[in-house]
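Review this fold:
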Amino acid sequence: MLVADYAALALFVLLWVAYAWITGSRRILSRTSLTKAMAERRRDWILNSLNRDLKMIDTQIMGGLQNGTAFFASTTIFAIGGCFALLGATEQVDAILKDIPFIVQGGRATFELKVCGLIALFAYSFFKFGWSYRLFNYCTILFGAIPMTDEAREHPARTMAAAERAIQMNIIAASHFNMGLRAIFYSIGYLGWFVSPWIFMLASGTVFVVLIRRQYFSEARRALLNDLAD
């Protein structure tokens, strides 16, 4: 590996950590992130469900959250399988890459190391999606434990405690889902490493900028906060 490869990998890790820190903060540049705003909307949804006995719409929402998480978990399994297949065809891929003039060659060992890094990214995503799926499942159980409307009026404190448990579980599950999705987004930038370390740096920086824009300057964020202060 070249010095540029180590520098590109260090930048990739730095951008990963920086994004996690920035979005994990409550506010940055006096702006609430899309993730934080959505967490409040999750709270609004579950609290609003306390006012209705018929909760079919709520169970459909829960099912949608679980199905989406399961889809991404399955996708990462296929991606991991594809990476292992790529490792088995290293010689053929290396021969193809040698014929492409603008690709920086680092040898077979370097190529295999890059593929292993990609496997690690997808494995991280799978564990995050798998755990998120399980937490959403727990959330459905906690949601079912929320008292019905008549009982809620008689025992408001117990009802609010039950609702708060479901809210927190839902927010935590969504947090792990977002972490898995972040790894998939960053894997797109990681693919640039197979071309050259400079493309790797550029692609990683581009992914970082796109994700920050979506969190703090996107139309989706404005739609969520159109009735609240930034």
